[in-house]
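How a chain folds remains the central question behind the approach discussed here. In the encoding step, the backbone of a single protein was reduced to a row of integers, each denoting a local shape. We regard such an encoding as a compact summary of how the chain folds. The sequence in question and its structure tokens are set out directly beneath this paragraph:

___
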Amino acid sequence: LHLMAGESARLTRFVQTILDVSRLEAGKIKFDAGPVAVTPLLRRCAETTFGLSPRSVHWRIQHDLPPAWVDEAYLEEIVRNLLVNVEKYTPAGSPVEIGVDRQPANCDSLQDRIRISVTDYGPGIPVAEQAHIFERFHRHTADCDQTMPGWGLGLYFARALTEAQGGTLTVTSPVMSQAHVKEFPGARFVLDLPMAEETPEE
């Protein structure tokens, strides 16, 4: 019964994700954007995703950070997808670094942005695969050439939700030092979001 309940929950999540993706692609998702305090949202997502896991979380948080201007519920969806990927593709108990800071305006953005980064210490993502990692139904292949379980929609949906709110989602791998890059090259996902008015998080 426990196995059946688990499979039923997985199927329900799959159907809901398909429906959400279809609504987003059809332009039928309405975003309720507003100022969102990012730091407590990140801590909440990490606690929910990792739970009692032995995985340690290293925090790199800028103080007096202005809120992001996004839909809070969908930002949680994006962040959870990134953290679930860490849980799925990296060794159990390996650390993860979660950072958030303010990025000044540059040639790519005329306004300051809120940047969230999620860095893992896992097997990384081959350069050739990075161009496809955000494609619909693409699933990452582990070192043993075994395709991991899943539907290949998480990162696709995360990027689509991000871009629909004026943000960007990118990946870099490897990210570790040369001494560790062969064994654990790691990967870093970077989420840039519009910034709200300058009212620092409490």
Observations:
- The mean pLDDT is 84.
- The longest helix spans residues 2-25.
- The CA atoms of residues 44 and 76 lie 9 Å apart.
- Helices lie at 2-25, 38-50, 72-89, 127-130, 154-164.
